[in-house]
Amino acid sequence: MKTRIFSLFVLLSLACASCQSSQSTPKTQTPSTNQTQSSTSAQQIFTNFLPPSQIYDLQINTPTGVVMRLTQISYAEDSIVANLAITNGSNEAIQLNDQDDMFLYDDLKKDSYDRYGNTYRLSVPPDNPKIQIQPGTTMKGQFVFIGRLSPQAKFLGLISNQRNPSYGAKTKPQMELKDIIIKR
After folding, report:
1. Which pLDDT score, from 0 to 100, does residue 26 have?
2. For labeling, which of 24, 88, 116, 159 is most exposed (least CB within 10 Å)?
3. Which CATH number fits domain 54-181: 2.60.40.4170, 3.40.630.30, 1.10.10.10, 3.40.50.300?
4. What 3-state class would DSSP assign to 3?
5. What pLDDT is attached to residue 98?
6. Half-sphere exposure (CA, 13 Å, Cβ side) for 109?
7. How far is CA 69 from CA 34, 61, 119, in A?
8. Considering only CA atoms, which of 131, 109, 132, 110 is closest in space to residue 122?
9. What predicted TM-score, i.e. pTM, was given to this entire model?
10. Quick one: pLDDT at residue 116?
């Protein structure tokens, strides 16, 4: 009888030891839902710093008959998209990005003397890198500028042909929309 009890006791001990060792064996780690949720939350928080899309009705006219109109700006993680309509009312073809110098810039305050804070360069379309517009035509579209908007920016500006404002002013007009308010 003592042998039976002893055998039963050994058997139970082995069973318990087996249960404990299976609980302590390392398992292959898979991403937990908490890790996935925390990275998604961080991405959402990061995205929340971006302002919502904004509607504008801004326009600039040159003496030579070129009209640039800004209707909307949208903000993404890696770009800023401006909806523009540019009408060439002159009798010659114009270029707005002659020397890769059409860009957006941000300011911390209106009418800042340090006019260009961060700059966001135009993502140049391969079929029209100089943004050439024929006389008597209107170009409408979404102009994509590279980079995420700075969280500190309060105003934007848009400029074309920034490098040489006086050279070829008729066919390469420098046009600038300043102090575009960013509503957050």
Report:
1. 43
2. 24
3. 2.60.40.4170
4. helix
5. 93
6. 3
7. 47, 9, 20
8. 131
9. 0.72
10. 66
Which pLDDT tens digit goes with each residue over 33-53? 454 454 555 455 555 689 999
User: Per-residue DSSP letters for 39-82?
Assistant: HHHHHHHHHHTSPPPEEEEEEEE-TTSEEEEEEEEEE-SSEEEE
Give the list of residues 6+ apart from residue 184 with CB closer than 8 angstroms, or none.
Answer: 51
Give the whole-angstrom CA distance, residue 7 versus residue 13: 10
8 A C-beta contact, residue 146 and residue 40: no
Q: 39 burial class (0-12, 13-18, 19+ CB within 10 angstroms)? A: exposed
Where do the domains of the chain lie? Answer: 54-181
With a cut of 50, list the residues of the chain below it in pLDDT.
1-33, 35-36, 38, 42
